[in-house]
UniProtKB/TrEMBL annotation:
It comes from Nostoc piscinale CENA21. This is Uncharacterized protein. It comes from the Bacteria. The lineage of its organism: Bacteria, Bacillati, Cyanobacteriota, Cyanophyceae, Nostocales.
Amino acid sequence: MADDIRSDDAEALITALKMLKGVIDVTPQESTSSDHIEQSRVKVQIRKELYAFIEEKLQ
């Protein structure tokens, strides 16, 4: 999922996902501060590359 949610809020979502046809199992993954830092770093890098590409194409 794109956004983090609290573990108690995740139970209803986990139950709903397990009811979908073809879903065998659903396991939650806890994120750490390192995960958030890495996600932010990647977003900044992609944004920089996208801006550079757009600037190059507009010239």
